[in-house]
Amino acid sequence: MKRLVKKRELISMDLTPLIDVVFLLLIFFIVASEFKKNETILNLTLPNSTSTQKVVKKKEIMIEISDNEVAYNGEKISFSLLKDNLSKMKKDTPINVKIDKEVKYKRVIELLDILNKLNLNNLLLITKENK
Length: 131
Prior knowledge:
Low-confidence stretches: none
Largest sheet: 5 strands, mixed
Strand content: 15-25%
Radius of gyration: 28 Å
Mean pLDDT: 81
Structural class: alpha/beta
């Protein structure tokens, strides 16, 4: 007596539709995502600090100061334009300031005078976290 042995056919799944779906999802997420704009325009070396960071939830303003340049929300401007832009702000608007550690003290005082004259007191000096 002979037994008939049937060979099994290998069943394989076609991966082409799966790859198509993965690429479509990838393209969707790339197009739909919002890329974070680089907040800093000036190349600053910030001083170190050991204090914790404060989280601000309101719309905030970013001011950067280097030896010869000033940036307001990622755009290089002059001190006179900075004063004009700050005069339009609400008094409780948070202002984040990044100052290069090599900046002369006189330049920092100029900025603080502008903020004081405009009665903008919600100020946060950004430093590099000391680890």
